[in-house]
């Protein structure tokens, strides 16, 4: 955190000054470790074993926050008799189908209730919902379509009333299921898998238990490294289970803080330029023979909780996009939305480019030619395009692959043979345009425009608006339905400035929502309706323009009087700073302790009050119990804080929504230096997404022939002086000078074994490629002891590429694509390789060198 | 310059010969013709902004003079950053004023060996033509079994994470209307 989010880290130091204990769990000893109370080393890819060990410690010693757990989590819910936990040997839950490599999740459900996976292939559901094959196909479809992401935000459909045992004694209640499941993760097992000592592990376990409960809270902070695994979603699930058991969710000083890596990556997820989502985590509709808006909403929305109002969110979105053309008679133009039927994520899309199915590509402020895993494959995709539009500040590698890409040097591509037409358009910087960023805490902050961009440089807002205008002009006379949907789009934004930039305020107003009749802004999503009377571009952002004021531009010094800084910017939803903060009070609405008071029920005023905007209906008393047949938020009791969940509770066990199990299981990564000690019968996540093709070969894992060709484990990391793949830092003189060269961190032991010299060169080779880096011999890189043998690991920063003031090989060249099955995020944090002294071969000798290793490992011969 | 004059400007000489023997005033004042002032004093506008690097969201104050950015520093009012910026955030001025920034459209024709110049307006027209043409040719109304698709897989988008919410919103809106579903961003990578 001190490296990648230095200024955010000041608050960790502030907490330390006030007595907080800081524990840093990381494979490497970093600038964070240097100021932490303890550094706990861990082998990359084993965090589920570590977190599972902590959960086991909490459960075996009954250190959970029992009142919180009984009232606010699904610990008391009974799981169906058909459910079987992951087996000791095979690590597989009930419902596994080895044919399709996917689960039928029906046995994972609660007893007495159905929590249906969202979406999937609805026609198949209709026709033969009870046939197991249909169920599996449908479930697999759901995950290919990425629609568990909607379920993750609570959108799972929920019918019936689950059977509960509030004493937590029933053998099939979630609490007991959990206890049995995590019993495998003993301190000794954790030590054997993760590499830390049992004593180190127990110290951490004791520290978090001692710092949780009524009077104290523990916070977990992770960066996106946790998500970049084939089991990334289950990493986060594991932390959620631990925090919910300890009562550390919805309370000040608690939670799981996701430190995202880029200015508004949260914003680009909320207002998603993502294939599987519409704004506000509404799933993209899947292909179908007959589906109307009502069916779509019915299949996807929860009947309980705020997702119960999904029809209002969808209709308001369609009204924002299609204006007067969207009427109740034509289903508000719902049939005009494109349909998805597969994984259309960026990795699959690039394979489609290579295979000739996708011919045009817009790349805006992104640099896949060095920034995406298996970069060579990315460049092969670029080279197969008919046209490519790149918008950036500098001549980044994605724009120049055709003239100086690594394949030109090796002779694998020839410039004159590359038929890609490339448009490189200069973009405006963050100070040359107005707009909002959403930071990692869901906070929208407005940037005002300081100056005009130089020359032909324009904002992306100008670009998309202008592109839309020109496309519409070309289609103006068309009567084709597919063109009408472009022409009917509301695209009449007021423009300003010398270049005719659309007014960003007007766009934010549309995102926030308004009443169609008089275009007056709504105060928030509770004012949205499904009758066409309101329009709203992103329901979770609704209210950011309440009272016709740009709330994101608020800049009261220090955020005003409130400790939550409520008057600085605007956090979604409804300016709430801590999500689910109703849980900071007990079921009766009283703070769990005075020390940790945050939001509570004021009996006299008949309202929730406190230091934050309550994440609860402000006048719903703790004593409220939903009447029979209540729906949406009315079905949430006054003692159920998790208002987006279909059952109002935090999920220790996920009865639906995940592709790879209702509980986290330790699996080894795609390429690991060892076998799976927890479940010897199943090495890696069986549901992970693989692409075993000539342009994406995998190193053989431990125990298979050829594994010894790539005996060293590697992981990737960031440093404070560079940003991501370097597009914003390698052209900057100060940053370039601070960290001028690609390097590799190796231990003195490995350096001695391989003859590597400090500041000399090393070549790192995998089945994908080979790169060179300066050698940094440091005690920070520690060899691992696994099963009584030594496994070396190295660390690679990934900020370099062939262009810029400072150049170097990209770490992404080395990594193969294997994805988490839920969210299609790639594993970049674990892999195996070989390291040799000296620089890598040049020209055609490079692919020959890589091939020689592949041959020795027997890769691609079968 | 007269060498003697140069010697007389030397602070220690001024201290010994002038009216400031303790060297606490006139004798040690800089020889610059005018007292130096920070470039923040000369700015004609100060604009509130947000750092474009990581997702912490530190406040920035952008100083500019005559339409050019002259300085970027931390915003002390921000409850997030309290005026601080890290090495990356502190480099924002270099990012914005970099001499290697591209300011003209660059065009590479199929098979071409170098960049060519292209007028922005022409480039926009050509890009619009490409989209319309690709979309028409790759349009899918339904799949083989008659299920509605209403889309194209003929072109794709990949966006970075410094695109504003407003920009992402219009991109998603336009692409969805065009039937493009392969729309992705840094969040998955």
Mean of all residue-level pLDDT scores of chain B: 94
Provide the low-confidence segments of chain B as ranges: none
* CATH architecture group name of the domain at 689-857 in chain A: Beta Barrel
The CATH class of the domain at 689-857 in chain A is: Mainly Beta
Structural class of chain A: alpha+beta
Please describe what this structure looks like:
The complex is a heterodimer of chains A (862) and B (189). Among the domains of chain A are: 581-641, no CATH class; 689-857, Barwin-like endoglucanases (Beta Barrel). Helices cover 26% and strands 14% of the residues of chain A. Chain A has a six-stranded mixed beta sheet with strand order 25-27-26-32-24-30. The longest helix of chain A is centred in the middle third of the chain and has 16 residues, at 460-475. Chain A is globular and about 75 Å long. Chain B has 189 residues and is α+β, with helices and mostly antiparallel strands. Among the domains of chain B are: 1-36, no CATH class; 39-97, N-terminal domain of TfIIb (Single Sheet), CATH 2.20.25. Chain B is 32% helix and 22% strand. Chain B has helices spanning 3-9, 11-17, 39-42, 87-90, 92-97, 120-138, 165-178; strands spanning 45-50, 59-65, 68-74, 106-108, 116-117, 139-142, 148-152, 155-159, 183-185. In chain B, the strands form four sheets. A three-stranded antiparallel beta sheet of chain B has the order 1-2-3. In chain B, strands 4-5 form a two-stranded antiparallel ribbon. Chain B has a two-stranded antiparallel ribbon with strand order 6-7. In chain B, a hairpin with a 2-residue loop joins strand 2 (59-65) and strand 3 (68-74). The N and C termini of chain B lie far apart (62 Å). The relative contact order of chain B is 0.07. Chains A and B meet through helix 12, helix 15, strand 11, strand 12 and helix 18 of A and strand 1, strand 2, strand 3, helix 4 and helix 5 of B.
């Amino acid at each position: 955190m001190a490296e990648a989010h230095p200024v955010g880290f000041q608050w960790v130091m502030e907490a330390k000054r006030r007595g907080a204990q800081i524990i840093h769990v990381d494979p490497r000893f970093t600038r964070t470790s240097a100021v932490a109370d303890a550094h706990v080393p861990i082998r990359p890819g084993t965090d589920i074993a570590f977190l599972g060990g902590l959960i086991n410690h909490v459960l075996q010693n009954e250190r959970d926050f029992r009142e919180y757990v009984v009232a606010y989590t699904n610990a008391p819910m009974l799981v169906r008799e058909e459910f079987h936990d992951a087996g000791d040997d095979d690590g597989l839950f009930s419902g596994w189908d080895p044919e399709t490599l996917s689960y039928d999740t029906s046995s994972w459900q609660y007893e007495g209730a159905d929590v249906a996976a969202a979406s999937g292939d609805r026609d198949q559901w209709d026709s033969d919902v009870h046939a197991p094959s249909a169920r599996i196909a449908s479930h697999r479809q759901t995950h290919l379509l990425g629609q568990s992401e909607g379920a993750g935000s609570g959108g799972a459909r929920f019918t019936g009333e689950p059977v509960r045992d509030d004493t937590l004694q029933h053998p099939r209640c979630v609490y007991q299921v959990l206890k049995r499941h995590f019993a495998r993760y003993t301190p000794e097992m954790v030590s054997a898998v993760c590499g830390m000592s049992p004593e180190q592990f127990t110290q951490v376990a004791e520290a978090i238990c001692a710092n949780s409960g009524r009077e104290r809270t523990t916070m977990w902070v992770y960066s996106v490294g946790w998500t970049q695994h084939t089991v990334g979603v289950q990493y986060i699930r594991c932390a959620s289970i631990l925090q919910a058991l300890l009562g550390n969710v919805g309370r000040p000083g608690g939670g799981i803080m996701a430190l995202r890596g880029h200015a508004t990556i949260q914003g680009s997820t909320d207002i998603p330029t993502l294939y599987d989502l519409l704004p506000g985590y509404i799933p993209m509709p899947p292909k179908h023979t007959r589906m109307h808006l009502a069916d779509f909403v019915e299949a996807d929305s929860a009947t309980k909780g705020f997702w119960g109002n999904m029809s209002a969110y969808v209709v308001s979105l369609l009204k924002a996009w299609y204006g007067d053309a969207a009427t109740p008679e034509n289903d508000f133009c719902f049939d005009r939305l494109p349909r998805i039927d597969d994984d259309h994520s960026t990795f699959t899309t690039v394979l489609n480019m290579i295979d000739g199915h996708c011919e045009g590509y817009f790349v805006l402020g992104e640099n896949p030619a060095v920034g995406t895993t298996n970069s060579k494959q990315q460049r092969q995709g670029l080279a197969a395009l008919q046209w490519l539009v790149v918008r950036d500040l500098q001549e980044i590698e994605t724009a120049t692959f055709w003239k100086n890409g690594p394949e030109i040097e090796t002779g694998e591509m020839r410039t004159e043979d590359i038929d890609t037409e490339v448009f490189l358009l200069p973009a405006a910087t963050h100070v040359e345009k107005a707009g909002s960023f959403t930071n990692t805490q869901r906070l929208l902050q407005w940037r005002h425009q300081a100056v005009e961009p130089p020359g032909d440089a324009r904002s992306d807002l100008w670009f998309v608006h202008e592109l839309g205008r020109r496309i519409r002009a070309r289609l103006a006379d068309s009567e084709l339905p597919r063109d009408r949907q472009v022409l009917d789009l509301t695209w009449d934004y007021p423009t300003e400035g010398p270049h005719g930039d659309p007014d960003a305020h007007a766009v934010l107003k549309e995102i926030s929502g308004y009443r169609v009749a008089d275009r007056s802004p709504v105060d928030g999503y509770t004012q949205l309706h499904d009758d066409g009377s309101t329009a709203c571009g992103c329901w979770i952002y609704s209210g950011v323009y309440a009272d016709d004021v740009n709330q994101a531009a608020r800049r009261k010094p220090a955020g005003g009087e409130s400790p939550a800084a409520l008057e600085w910017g605007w956090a979604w939803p409804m300016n709430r700073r801590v999500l689910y903060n109703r849980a900071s009070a007990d079921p009766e609405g009283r703070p769990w302790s005075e020390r940790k008071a945050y939001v509570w029920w004021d009996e006299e005023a008949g309202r929730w009050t406190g230091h934050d905007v309550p994440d609860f209906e402000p006048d719903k008393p703790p004593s409220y119990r939903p009447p029979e047949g209540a729906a949406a938020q009315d079905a949430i009791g006054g003692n159920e804080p998790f208002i987006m969940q279909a059952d109002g509770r935090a999920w220790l066990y996920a009865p639906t929504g995940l592709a790879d199990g209702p509980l986290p299981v330790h699996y080894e990564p795609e390429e690991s230096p060892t076998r799976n000690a927890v479940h010897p019968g199943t090495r890696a996540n069986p549901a992970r997404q693989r692409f075993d093709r000539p342009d994406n070969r995998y190193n053989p894992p431990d125990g298979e022939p050829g594994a010894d060709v790539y005996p060293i484990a590697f992981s990737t990391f960031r440093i404070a002086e560079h940003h991501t793949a370097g597009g914003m830092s390698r052209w900057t003189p100060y940053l370039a000078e601070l960290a001028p060269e690609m390097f590799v961190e190796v231990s003195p032991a490995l350096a001695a074994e391989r003859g590597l010299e400090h500041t000399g060169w090393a070549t790192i080779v995998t089945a994908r490629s080979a790169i060179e880096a300066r050698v940094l011999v440091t005690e920070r890189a520690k060899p691992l002891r696994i099963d009584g043998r030594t496994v070396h690991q190295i660390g690679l920063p990934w900020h370099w590429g062939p262009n810029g003031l400072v150049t170097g090989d990209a770490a992404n060249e080395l990594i193969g694509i294997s994805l988490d099955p839920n969210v299609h995020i790639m594993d970049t944090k674990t892999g195996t390789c070989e390291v040799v002294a000296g620089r890598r071969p040049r020209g055609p000798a490079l692919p020959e060198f890589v091939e020689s290793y592949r041959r020795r490992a027997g890769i691609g011969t079968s | 310059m007269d060498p003697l004059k140069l010697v007389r400007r030397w602070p220690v000489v001024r201290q010994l010969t002038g009216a400031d023997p303790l060297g606490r005033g006139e004798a040690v004042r800089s020889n610059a013709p005018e007292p130096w002032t920070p470039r923040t004093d000369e700015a004609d506008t100060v604009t509130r902004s947000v750092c474009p690097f990581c997702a912490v969201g530190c406040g920035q104050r952008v100083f500019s003079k005559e339409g050019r950015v002259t300085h970027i520093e931390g915003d002390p009012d921000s409850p997030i950053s309290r005026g601080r910026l890290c090495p990356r955030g502190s480099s924002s001025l270099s990012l914005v004023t970099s001499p290697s920034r591209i300011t003209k459209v660059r065009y590479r024709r199929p098979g071409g060996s170098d960049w060519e110049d292209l007028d922005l307006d022409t480039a926009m027209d050509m890009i619009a033509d490409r989209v319309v043409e690709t979309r028409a040719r790759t349009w899918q109304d339904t799949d083989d079994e008659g299920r509605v698709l209403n889309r194209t897989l003929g072109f794709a988008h990949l966006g970075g994470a410094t695109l504003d919410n407003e920009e992402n919103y219009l991109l998603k809106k336009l692409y969805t209307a065009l039937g493009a579903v392969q729309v992705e961003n840094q969040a998955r990578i």
